C-alpha cells in the first residue's frame, strides 16, 4: 500500500468506528506534535480532503466494504470494518492491510512492506492553537 494513504485511511476507519468528529491525525501515539488536517464526509459515501497532500480520497460503501479511491496516487483500496478492527487490500498490488482502533489510537499493518504504524486521532476542538501575544 502506498504510505501516503496511511493517514487518510486511518482517518476514515476511525471515523467509521467511533463516529468522530476528528479533524486531524498525528503519526505515532503522541497527543501533541505535528498533525495533518482532514475534512469531509465519512458515511455510506466517502469524500475526505487531506490538507497535507492537498488531495481527496473518495468512495462508497458496498455491503460491508468500503471501496476507496485516492486521486493523487490513483490507488484503489477495499476496506472492511468490523467493530474495532479493519482489513482490506490494495487493489493495485493485491497486498493486504489490517488494523485496530482503540480509543484515539489506530494501528495499521501494511502487508506489502511488512510494517506496523501507529496514529493518534485528534478530536474536533482538541487541536492545539498557538496564538501570539498582542502588544497593548
Write up what this structure looks like.
- This protein has 136 residues and is mainly beta.
- The chain has one domain (3-123): Lipocalin (Beta Barrel).
- Helix content is 10%, strand content 51%.
- It has one helix at 6-18, and strands spanning 22-27, 36-42, 45-50, 55-62, 65-70, 75-82, 85-90, 95-102, 105-110, 115-123.
- It is globular, with a radius of gyration of 15 Å.
- 32% of the residues are buried.
Q: Which descriptors would you attach to this protein?
A:
136 residues; mainly beta; Lipocalin; ten-stranded antiparallel β-barrel; 10 strands; 10% helix; disordered C terminus
SS strand fraction: over 45%
Sheet having the most strands: 10 strands, antiparallel, barrel
Give the N-terminus to C-terminus distance in angstroms: 53 Å
Helix content: under 10%
Mass-distribution shape: globular
Number of strands: 10
Number of domains in the coordinates? Answer: 1
Listing every helix as H and every strand as E from the N terminus to the C terminus, the arrangement reads: HEEEEEEEEEE
Please list the strands of the largest sheet in the order they lie side by side: 1-2-3-4-5-6-7-8-9-10
Unreliable sequence segments: 128-136
Mean pLDDT: 89
CATH-assigned fold name: Lipocalin
Number of helices: 1
SS-based structural class?
mainly beta
Name of the CATH first level: Mainly Beta
CATH architecture grouping: Beta Barrel
For the CA atoms, what is the radius of gyration? 15 Å
Amino acid at each position: 500500500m502506498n504510505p501516503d494513504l496511511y493517514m487518510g485511511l486511518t482517518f476514515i476507519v476511525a471515523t467509521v468506528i467511533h463516529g468522530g468528529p476528528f479533524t486531524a491525525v498525528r503519526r505515532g501515539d503522541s497527543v501533541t506534535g505535528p498533525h495533518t488536517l482532514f475534512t469531509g464526509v465519512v458515511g455510506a459515501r466517502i469524500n475526505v480532503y487531506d490538507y497535507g497532500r492537498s488531495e481527496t480520497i473518495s468512495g462508497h460503501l458496498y455491503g460491508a466494504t468500503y471501496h476507496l479511491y485516492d486521486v493523487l496516487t490513483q490507488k484503489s483500496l477495499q476496506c472492511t470494518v468490523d467493530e474495532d478492527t479493519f482489513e482490506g487490500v490494495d487493489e493495485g498490488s493485491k497486498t493486504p492491510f489490517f488494523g485496530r482502533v482503540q480509543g484515539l489510537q489506530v494501528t495499521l499493518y501494511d502487508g506489502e512492506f511488512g510494517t506496523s504504524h501507529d496514529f493518534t486521532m485528534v478530536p474536533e476542538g482538541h487541536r492545539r492553537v498557538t496564538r501570539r501575544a498582542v502588544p497593548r
